[in-house]
């Protein structure tokens, strides 16, 4: 392998920069030329390439976002767009590509691999919605961002003695809600993977009130229901109002946590080493703190489910 390229695609996540840095520095370590592709697959189509060196990734390990920018590319969904991308990669003599992104980006990476460009997918999304890996880059930071908000909301919720519904991101995956809910001591955690019972949430709130509890935090994963709908259901059932806080894009930003920086760095080095060994069409991840990789289609075919142990823990501790 003489030359490889790296891009970030789909939604950005904290830790992508640490991963780009690891890819660039590891490539240089092995004497491989490395190209940064701007704006994900759009950059492949428009040949928006830049040669990276050790200093071009200086001072970014601690920063959120992605210095390569990211995009969702409609053109890359077409065969014509992909052919253009492949032509540009070949013209530049790029033999391997590292794609940092979510499941959609991985589908694109699989198509490039099938067209003869060795491609490795690194999971970069706050959602933690890829079943083949325990963690994705950015998830831990997003959970900590939500936790910070829970602590602040708890103060005001206690002062006003009102329940607050906090809506968090995660698309169809409830991991952000579950982890932040357990760590933040929420009274109820509502995730899309599991139906919820409003009467049991209300019962828990009433029980809590009787034992002197002054606040109620309900964490709602965005894929379950709209916060406004849930609020209305609570008002209809109890006659009491609840507050809503939709956290939104703050969950995508911020300095990456130590966990995300280390994970991103480990995955970046491993991706370069796999390409160097002639591998491709792989999804790279981590299971039980060991780096793992498997065929990208196989990785995508796995269905993500929630952790029943965490769910049980949340139930028991929120009595
Ligand atoms: P996130 O999980 O943060 O949303 P993602 O990688 O899943 O990230 P998507 O918008 O789904 O984000 O995908 C990123 C890009 O990957 C798309 O804009 C598109 O260019 C490409 N892509 C997605 N699906 C396919 C596909 N089936 N074939 C080819 N390319 C695809």
TrEMBL record:
A Gene Ontology cellular-component term: 6-phosphofructokinase complex
EC number(s) from the headed UniProt entry: 2.7.1.11
Entry GO MF terms: 6-phosphofructokinase activity; AMP binding; ATP binding; fructose-6-phosphate binding; identical protein binding; metal ion binding; monosaccharide binding
Residues engaged in binding substrate: 125-127, 169-171, 222, 243
Signal peptide: none
Pathway(s) served: Carbohydrate degradation; glycolysis; D-glyceraldehyde 3-phosphate and glycerone phosphate from D-glucose: step 3/4
Entries under Pfam families matching the protein: PFK
Binding site for ATP: 11, 72-73, 102-105
Control of this protein's activity: Allosterically activated by ADP and other diphosphonucleosides, and allosterically inhibited by phosphoenolpyruvate.
Named cofactor requirement(s): Mg(2+)
Domain (Phosphofructokinase) ranges: 3-275
GO biological process: canonical glycolysis; fructose 1,6-bisphosphate metabolic process; fructose 6-phosphate metabolic process
UniProt-annotated binding residues for Mg(2+): 103
Active-site residues, as the UniProt record annotates them: 127
UniProt key word Kinase: yes
Annotated InterPro entries: ATP_PFK, ATP_PFK_prok-type, PFKA_ATP_prok, Phosphofructokinase_dom, PKF_sf
Keywords assigned by UniProt, alphabetized: Allosteric enzyme, ATP-binding, Cytoplasm, Glycolysis, Kinase, Magnesium, Metal-binding, Nucleotide-binding, Transferase
Oligomer status and interactors: Homotetramer.
Protein name: ATP-dependent 6-phosphofructokinase
Species this protein is from: Paenalkalicoccus suaedae
Organism classification: Bacteria, Bacillati, Bacillota, Bacilli, Bacillales
Gene from which the chain derives: pfkA
């Amino acid at each position: 392998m003489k030359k490889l390229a790296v891009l970030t695609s789909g939604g950005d996540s904290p830790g992508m920069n640490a991963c780009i840095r690891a890819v660039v520095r590891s490539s240089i370590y092995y004497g491989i030329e490395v190209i940064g592709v701007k704006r994900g697959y759009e950059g492949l189509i428009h040949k928006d390439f830049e040669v990276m060196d050790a200093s071009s990734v200086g001072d970014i390990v601690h920063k959120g976002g992605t210095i390569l920018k990211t995009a969702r590319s409609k053109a890359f969904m077409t065969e014509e767009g992909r052919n253009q991308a492949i032509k540009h990669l070949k013209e530049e003599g790029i033999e391997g590509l590292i794609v940092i992104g979510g499941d959609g980006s991985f589908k694109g990476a699989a198509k490039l691999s099938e067209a003869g460009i060795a491609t490795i997918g690194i999971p970069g999304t706050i959602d933690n919605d890829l079943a083949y890996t325990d963690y994705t880059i950015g998830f831990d930071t997003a959970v900590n961002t939500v936790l910070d908000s829970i602590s602040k909301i708890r103060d005001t919720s206690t002062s006003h003695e009102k329940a607050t519904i906090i809506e968090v991101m995660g698309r169809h995956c409830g991991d952000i809600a579950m982890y932040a809910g357990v760590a933040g001591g929420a009274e109820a955690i509502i995730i899309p993977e599991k139906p919820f019972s409003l009467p049991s949430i209300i019962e828990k709130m009433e029980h809590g009130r009787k034992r002197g509890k002054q606040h109620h935090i309900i964490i709602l994963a965005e894929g379950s229901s709209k916060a406004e709908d849930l609020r209305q259901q609570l008002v209809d059932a109890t006659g009491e109002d609840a507050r809503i806080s939709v956290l939104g894009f703050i969950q995508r930003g911020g300095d990456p946590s130590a966990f995300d920086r280390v994970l991103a760095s480990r995955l970046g080095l491993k991706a370069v080493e796999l390409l160097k060994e002639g591998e491709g069409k792989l999804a790279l991840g981590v299971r039980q703190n060991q780096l793992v990789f498997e065929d990208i289609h196989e990785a995508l075919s796995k269905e993500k489910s929630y952790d029943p142990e965490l769910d049980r823990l949340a139930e028991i501790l929120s009595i």
